[in-house]
Amino acid sequence: MSEDTLLRIAEAMERMSPAPAGKPDFGKAEAFVWRPEADCLDPVARVNRVDLSLLVGIDRARDTLLANTLRFACGFLANNALLWGSRGMGKSSLVKAVHAEVLSHGHEIKIIEVQREDLPSIGRLMNMLRASAARFLLFCDDLSFSHDDQHYKSLKAVLDGGIEGRPENVVFYATSNRRHLMPRDMIENERSSAISPSEATEEKVSLSDRFGLWLGFHPCSQDDYLEMVRGYCTAWGIEIEADTLRAEAIEWQATRGSRSGRVAWQYFTDLAGRRGVALDKAAK
Q: Which of 1, 88, 131, 255 is most buried, judged by most C-beta within 10 A?
């Protein structure tokens, strides 16, 4: 076999099984995205988030999650958290805003985004983080499982840690529209077709029980919705008559058929565009 052929074979094998990535440089950023295909963490230069003060109508969840995260950042015990409930009510925004607030207190904590489909690789990430002196908040947005989805088993390694235990420098936050992380009809179907209905769903339903904190998010009132809109206007310096703002904001949510923080932001985005106000800079 020629030297050229051997070289091509070696290069092909290298592409199929690349050399392990080096240790990540956590000094590059405060936020990262897990890339399991390369076993690496990509730094995020700028996190897409809003200020904690702009999140209205979720005071209890805000205070509870902030206190839990501050304890963790200070080196004390803290719970994994599941933020569940109505769509568009600020679940993922709260996680990112709390992270920024903890940083503003002078604490060092890194946030790492993990995609639901990448959960099977979570063990490798945990081993990588276990060896670091830094503290990490793993964040999985819009977490849920379908009938034949086995990814939930990988999540248990994050929540329970197996024989090694969860690294003391890692905490896991997830958001979901479902309290038990799976459709209700799926739970009922398994119960009705199982020999032992209670045991059939216990393994999957109990997954949410492994989160020490359950924080519920519910549809907001009209007063909260209007307060959100006014808060955005104040933060970005948009002046508008109170009656006009109220009328436009209510008409906007009526056309959407719902009220939420997301709808309030969408109306404000439209208003800012009409007023020629750029939103490329974070509110101060």
A: 88
Give me the long-range contacts of 186-195 (CB less than 8 A, separation at least 24). Answer: 186/146, 186/147, 189/147
Average pLDDT over residues 122-142: 92
What is the DSSP code (8-state) at residue 187? H
Over residues 3-58, the pLDDT tens digits come to: 777 677 766 665 555 455 557 789 889 999 999 998 999 999 999 999 999 999 89
Alpha carbons 122 and 136: distance in angstroms, whole number: 13
d(CA 89, CA 80): 20
pLDDT digits (tens, 9 = 90+) for 161-216: 666 777 899 999 999 987 767 655 554 455 455 445 555 455 556 677 788 999 99
Q: Strand, helix or coil at 32?
A: strand
The CATH number of the structural domain formed by 31-217 is 3.40.50.300
Q: Where are the domains of the chain?
A: 31-217, 222-275
Distance of CA 197 to the CA centre of its chain: 32
Q: Computed over its alpha carbons, how large is the radius of gyration of the chain?
A: 22
- C-alpha span between 251 and 96 (Å, rounded): 30
- DSSP letters, 158-204, are HHT-TTT---TTEEEEEEESSTTSS-HHHHHHHHHH-SSHHHHHHHH
Start-to-end Cα distance in the chain: 67
